[in-house]
Amino acid sequence: MKKKVVVVGNGMVGYKFCEKLIAKGGSEQFDIIVFGEEPRPAYDRVHLSAYFGEKTIEELTMAPLEWYSENQIQLHLSDPVTNIDREKKIINTHQGISLNYDYLILATGSAPFVPPIPGVEKDGVFVYRTIEDLDMMKSHAAKSKIGAVIGGGLLGLEAAKALLDLGITDTHVIEFAPRLMPRQIDQAGSDILKSKLSTLGIKIHCNKNTQEIAGGDTLEKMVFADGEILKVDMLVISAGIKPRDELAKIAGLEVGSRGGILVNNKLQTSDESIFAIGECALHEHMIYGLVAPGYEMADIVASEIVGNATKEFTGFDMSTKLKLIGVDVASFGNAFAEEPDCQTIIYENKTKGVYKRVNISNDNKYLLGGILVGDAEQYNMLLQTVNNKLPIPADPEDLILGSRGGESGGESGVMSLPDEALICSCEAITKGQICHEVIENGNDTVDTLKKSTKACTGCGGCTPMVKDLIQGILKSQGKVVRNVLCEHFEYTRQELLSLVKIKALKTYDDVLEDLGHGDGCETCKPAVASILASLWNENVLEKGRLTAQDSNDRFLANIQRGGTYSVVPRIPGGEITPEKLIVIGEVAQKYGLYTKITGGQRIDMFGAHVGDLPAIWEQLIEAGFESGQAYGKSLRTVKSCVGTTWCRFGVQDAVSFAIEVENRYKGLRSPHKLKSAVSGCIRECAEAQSKDFGIIATEKGWNLYVCGNGGSKPRHAELLATDVSSEMCLKLIDRFLMFYIKTAEPLQRTAPWLDKMEGGLAYLKSVVIDDVLGLNAQFEADMDALVDTYKCEWKEAVETPEIRKRFVHFVNAPEEKDPTVKFEPLREQIKAEDWNAVVK
Amino acid sequence: MIHLYELFHAMMKPMKNMNNTETMTSWILACRVEDIPENGGACVLLDGEQIAIYNFKKRGEWYATQNLCPHKQQMALSRGMIGSMGEDPKVACPFHKKTFSLKSGACLSGDDYEIKTYQVKVEGNEVFVAF
């Protein structure tokens, strides 16, 4: 008969123990029985706040119920173990199960620590640990305006993010200590973090001692020791954790005076057949409240009981990097080392909200640790430098500021790490293991490595490093790392564009037949479709090209939550007549659409059923509108300010020029979307310097800026030419855009295109101004040809029966709309049903 | 107006109930060949269920799957791009490009969920789904 392993607790660490035990062949030796207190199988508590945003419960679940049954693991949910008879080796559960064990694994985790403040029992006071907690917060949040969190540590700030996600814009964080995240960062780092979070609308109160939570049955306000009062509608307490050791206590196991089940280096409790792992275990006076050390403990115990123990638990590196409400925070190695034990270098930029601190050994040879706030891009390399005692630059400030000038000096980066360097700390994957997978097993993409090693599947923080490592290994093997499109085309986008042009190929199928292999995919199809449109400017839906288009291009509208589409007619320069405004209103009313002004000075209409699109367009076209191509990787808008037509400061007619520019480039398809703007004077109200090409009026003409963008990595555009005439300005834009279209990678916007261009802006100028390649006449002619062949895609679609008939949801019931589409009311309009709430 | 296919469908229903075992498949007329764009998909409504049908002309093959993408529960797979990963034919959901094997229904982008697949046959101009 098999021996029995009983696991108490089905959280992340309890689950990981099962996974490790199965992987080590444990199911042949043992029957595995798991008891969990919560009603659902283990889920990812680290990313809990994602439950309010981008993720569903299913996605947060570590493994579905079938996984347990497939691996012959008996899982009892909603059934906590209530006592242990250590003499007889029997556990008893709440639901009355009695079971003997050979090994007992306690993975009972922790509970939120609730300080004894009067009033904590009131309605509207929450803790933040389980899905149930979140559900309760969600329903209370619906009627709350002001929220507060007690605790400014890692979890407290996570909880504050959850409140923001729940729509509570007035959120306060109350911290007893003088600084935020006292375990991870220092005062100066906390100050920067505090000012960053304030700009996001979170009000931080440090040095604040909550004396009472006042109100009736429901809380109404918080009273502080300094006499101040804060009115609140809901409060989350996140003041720390306390290990769940009550079962261990009942069983007479040794526990620490401040909680936690005492364990040795094998994670054994005072009873040698009982182990404790994760947040409930107390090892050398330490409770480890992070998931990575918990996983390490799970691994060690699994090895121990299958009789293959190789290592012991001797503490864990508590370095962390996380994104808190969009702000990077990291602390690594000995973050708090101070002079005279080390030399400290600090970089602080209050305007950008960046703080960096590194602690260097007194002999100037080693990095000991440090803190990063606001920008933690260097975290992985810095951590590796500490852990592997790598040599540091002669001028240690280069560690955080980068090498400025001089020779670049030797190999750096991930390839210089030793094989034993830990790359993925969640799954304990070393550089050596990844090299082995790439070289011996050919797993040379992040996706295949995820499957074979589980690297990058925990927190995901190591993904950029793994990518660099793959590139580095392939390069060192002499394999040319070419940016080919995908598995179906051995060409870069630039090569493919030239070949398609020379061979005069007009459809995706012809291109695949002639230049590719296999059946294509969602990467090469839109890339080739874009090349074809940039070259020939034929309707994207004709000649069987429709199925090569990405969904938005295929339906000439933007797919939105719920599967309906949004429609954006072109409003060049943002100028529109009252008559046209009325038509937009009428169309939106007729089809029940939600309307919103876009950032590009036009009007978006949301919630259109696919079958209604042709009729909507017909009515818009009738009124003189054209497609705004909001769905395409193509010119979006040319935004403008009013310039000399009305503004007392204007020096040129910005609106007229914006309309001319927009009408010239409308419909132009490119590797990525293109945005533009024209400002009538130096005050720059149209924000032209944040566009792919932006134009600002001067007394003498126009200044042309290129390669800017907003988005997640905002970039200021760079000045290409000054005081040029309107005619010259258009010529320069023609050349610039054609050069970009012909040489960029798929889905590369103009800013990263310029970043990767050898010679940078100077080279771009030499091409489009000095004509060093002798291509400018060609660029201008190509652009003229595209401008001459422009047609409105909507008009062609509604007038061509072959194309129009595809705009239905059910091809066997064309009149019927998708019955699963649901809307909810929102401020006198509608919105799509929340897709995290939908179970169909 | 009763659509021709609905009428046909209504006639098929009792037959399906008679063959009330899982091993028996009943072929239901779903649509005409020209209703499904070449090398792409479209959606049909069969017995209240949304089925995505794909005409994989490049391979001379037809496939059918549930229309629902399990990632965000969106009725969207029929509007996705189809293609291949190695030899495996696949569809990519238009929402977040989760990809699924058209043969096995397995998620090829590494998630745990999968989609239902159905057999398809084409006779003359008519497309049938085993339902």
Question: Can you describe what's shown?
Answer:
The complex is a heterodimer of chains A (about 850) and B (about 130). By secondary structure, chain A is α/β, with parallel strands linked by helices. Chain A has five domains: about 5-110 and about 245-305, 3-Layer(bba) Sandwich (FAD/NAD(P)-binding domain), CATH 3.50.50; about 115-240, FAD/NAD(P)-binding domain, CATH 3.50.50; about 495-550, no CATH class; about 555-625 and about 790-840, Sulfite Reductase Hemoprotein, domain 2 (Alpha-Beta Complex); about 635-790, Sulfite Reductase Hemoprotein, domain 1 (2-Layer Sandwich). Helix content of chain A is about 30%, strand content about 20%. Chain A is built from 27 helices and 39 strands. Chain A has a five-stranded parallel beta sheet with strand order 3-2-1-7-19. In chain A, strands 9-16-10-11-12 form a five-stranded parallel beta sheet. In chain A, β29 and β30 (about 565) form a beta hairpin. The radius of gyration of chain A is 31 Å and the shape is globular. The two termini of chain A are about 45 Å apart. In chain A, about 45% of the residues are buried. In chain B, the strands form four sheets. A four-stranded antiparallel beta sheet of chain B has the order 2-3-4-10, with no helix packed on it. In chain B, strands 1-12-11 form a three-stranded antiparallel beta sheet. Residues about 1-20 of chain B have low confidence and may be disordered. Chain B has one helix at about 5-20; strands at about 25-30, 40-45, 50-55, 60-65, 70, 75, 80-85, 90, 100, 115-120, 120-125, 125-130. Chain B is mainly β and about 130 residues long. Chain B has one domain (about 30-130): Rieske [2Fe-2S] iron-sulphur domain (Rieske Iron-sulfur Protein), CATH 2.102.10.10.
